[in-house]
């Protein structure tokens, strides 16, 4: 399309539009929209070719961008900035959380080393050798704390090794709690703590091995065997004796707060032993005036549902 602009340059009239006026006029025409037509359309206005004295005016080729396109570009740019900012913030938060967990584990481990006299400390190398480098074939269970492995120590004694996983539901604080409690609690119906490992940012607890697994294993519909009434009654009485010891004979008393079938273990003779003291709390002790210094919640903290 050719655009002819008046007034033209001639001998009678020498006035012409300047470059900015030419561009403004061109902008008016290039902003027009031509409706499509089934026979001849659609139409697209690409450029004006100026003639006469305006032929030397430089015009950039290409069609003008509509306001809607500019709005879309702006919104897209804002969305990209928000997405990048969110991604960077998430990475920073994850890195901070990871560093915080590592520092917490180091802090708790140092505290544990000072407060668990009489409990054997194992090295990471010993734990790896006992489980064949934590081979999946040695795994016998898994919970909120982490994985449980069957291990054989250097003296050929069989133990259960509970290895905490990073980001586990139980860990860090529960690690120290369980060591402190089991190091002073001794009863035939409580699982015995053999030792612990707190090396290379690892947290592992070593218990006596329970070859018959958990009570839940025997009560589920996938159980390999059944328990007769007499055995069930004996398991119930053994569990009750363990809990009674915690509430009345332990000094100070202990509230387990997570009694369930998965935390009742069975030895080779199907003797019940209460386990997993990570959520337990020590009862408050009376002061010299006979008052309780603080309040301890006895609300159940674990999930006691049996599928």
From TrEMBL:
Q: Which Gene3D superfamilies does its entry note? A: Phosphorylase Kinase, domain 1, Transferase(Phosphotransferase) domain 1
Q: Which residues bind ATP?
A: 162
Give the stretches traversing the membrane: 69-93
What PROSITE patterns does the record point to? PROTEIN_KINASE_ATP, PROTEIN_KINASE_DOM, PROTEIN_KINASE_ST
Primary location recorded for the protein, binned into one broad class: membrane
The leader peptide range reads none
Q: Quote the subcellular location field of this record.
A: Membrane
For this UniProt record, give its keywords in alphabetical order, as a comma-separated list.
ATP-binding, Glycoprotein, Kinase, Membrane, Nucleotide-binding, Repeat, Serine/threonine-protein kinase, Signal, Transferase, Transmembrane, Transmembrane helix
Protein origin, superkingdom:
Eukaryota
Q: Which Pfam families match?
A: PK_Tyr_Ser-Thr
Domain Protein kinase spans what residues?
A: 134-307
Q: Which InterPro entries match?
A: Kinase-like_dom_sf (IPR011009), Prot_kinase_dom (IPR000719), Protein_kinase_ATP_BS (IPR017441), Ser-Thr/Tyr_kinase_cat_dom (IPR001245), Ser/Thr_kinase_AS (IPR008271)
Family label: Belongs to the protein kinase superfamily.
- Which protein is depicted? Protein kinase domain-containing protein
């Amino acid at each position: 399309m050719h655009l002819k602009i008046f007034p033209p340059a001639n001998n009678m009239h020498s006035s012409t539009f300047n470059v900015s006026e030419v561009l403004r006029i061109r902008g008016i025409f290039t902003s027009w929209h031509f409706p499509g037509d089934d026979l001849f359309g659609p139409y697209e206005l690409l450029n004006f070719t100026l003639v006469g004295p305006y032929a030397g005016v430089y015009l950039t080729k290409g069609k003008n961008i509509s306001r809607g396109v500019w709005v879309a570009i702006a919104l897209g740019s804002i969305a990209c900035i928000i997405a990048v900012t969110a991604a960077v913030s998430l990475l920073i938060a994850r890195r901070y959380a990871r560093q915080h967990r590592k520092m917490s584990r180091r802090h708790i481990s140092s505290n544990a080393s000072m407060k668990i006299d009489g409990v054997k400390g194992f090295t990471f190398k010993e734990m790896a050798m006992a489980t064949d480098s934590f081979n999946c074939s040695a795994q016998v269970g898994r919970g909120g704390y982490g994985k449980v492995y069957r291990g054989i120590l250097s003296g050929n004694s069989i133990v259960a090794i509970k290895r905490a996983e990073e980001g586990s539901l139980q860990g860090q604080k529960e690690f120290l709690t369980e060591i402190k409690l089991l190091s002073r609690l001794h009863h035939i119906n409580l699982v015995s703590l053999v030792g612990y490992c707190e090396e290379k940012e690892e947290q592992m607890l070593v218990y006596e091995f329970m070859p018959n697994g958990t009570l839940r294993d025997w009560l589920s519909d996938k159980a390999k065997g059944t328990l007769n009434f007499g055995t069930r009654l004996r398991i119930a009485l053994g569990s009750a004796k363990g809990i009674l010891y915690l509430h009345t004979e332990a000094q100070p008393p202990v509230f387990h707060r997570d009694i369930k079938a998965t935390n009742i273990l069975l030895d080779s003779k199907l003797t019940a032993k209460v386990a997993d003291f990570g959520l337990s709390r020590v009862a408050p002790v009376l002061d010299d005036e006979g008052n309780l210094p603080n309040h301890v919640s006895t609300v159940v903290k674990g999930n006691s549902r049996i599928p």
